[in-house]
């Protein structure tokens, strides 16, 4: 896959409910992550009933991926359908909160692409709506929940393989265009307007902030320093093509991440996503999408070193994606096993603070 925007992992079906027990719809189809979101719910036993987007191009693209779903005449049709329990959405980033508020007000749970919102004011409204309606504002932090190496690393940590986690360092490079069309950005025009996409630390940085919180087991943190730059894309003056951030967590662990739009066209993947986790008794490295220098190595790899062993795991096709089944059961049972609401919001909050307070390095 040359374009991360269209990354839509597939796995073996692992239904947690009977057919028809959990019905969902899709509204807002701007970002290709909607395909991964819907794939995950379908594999966990959900039924995709209908979809809508105001742009016919996105509706047609979605219909090609999911021909069995009904094309609704409007968003209102979906929100009024009492059989639909959850709405998944990947609209423009700055419109995701407003959509979520409408979904929750209609009595349905909401599952949004990351970043889940673009301002702290939107975050406050989302938190208030969750309290008022009792509905979920779930977030598709795909670089952890939809990557097998990330899932497996979490399992190793739960088993005590590296002891207490002290630090998480993440790298989230992305390709701006595609290998097939290297001179043309593979992103819609709104993506290059900061008020729409929120900035690089708000956007793809939220993936890494969520992972730092998750693997360290922290509930909160303090952004120590963050930086953004537009080093090499003057034609897009509002684009951050580089960003990094250092954070100290409430349990004294630390985190650092770097995100950028500098994946070269010679790389076999849209980005060499990596994560390093240091523990008191060992360390873990994740190579999420490929193994550098090994042709055709697309997949997930986990490297572990501790007091007992040094080992490389190839986990592609072996771990699956339990988040989606857990989310379905959480919606049905009103539990929080997939991801707590506060965790989802805290990752967004710290990312927004990092973006707001970032030192501008260039231009």
Quick rundown:
With 363 residues, the protein is α/β, with parallel strands linked by helices. It contains eleven helices and 15 strands.
**Which CATH class of the largest domain is shown?**
Alpha Beta
Helicity level = 25-40%
Strand order of the largest sheet: 14-13-12-11-7-10-9-8-15
Element pattern in H and E: EHEHEHEHEHEHHEHHEEEEEEEHHE
| End-to-end distance | 31 Å
What's the CATH topology label of the largest domain? Answer: Dihydrodipicolinate Reductase, domain 2
CATH homologous superfamily designation of the largest domain: Dihydrodipicolinate Reductase, domain 2
Q: What's the number of structural domains? A: 2
Helix/sheet category: alpha/beta
The appropriate CATH architecture of the largest domain is 2-Layer Sandwich
Radius of gyration (CA) equals 19 Å
Largest sheet: 9 strands, mixed
Envelope shape: globular
Low-confidence stretches: none
Strand content: 15-25%
| Secondary structure tally, helices | 11
Kindly state the mean pLDDT as a whole number? 94
Number of E strands: 15
Structure description:
The chain is of the alpha/beta class and about 375 residues long. The chain has 2 domains: about 5-140 and about 320-335, Rossmann fold (3-Layer(aba) Sandwich), CATH 3.40.50; about 145-320 and about 350-360, Dihydrodipicolinate Reductase, domain 2 (2-Layer Sandwich), CATH 3.30.360. The chain has helices spanning about 35-45, 55-65, 75-80, 95-105, 120-135, 140-145, 150-160, 195, 205-215, 320-335, 340-355; strands spanning about 25, 45-50, 70, 85-90, 110-115, 135-140, 165-175, 220-230, 240-250, 255-260, 275-280, 280-285, 300-305, 310-315, 360. The two termini are about 30 Å apart.
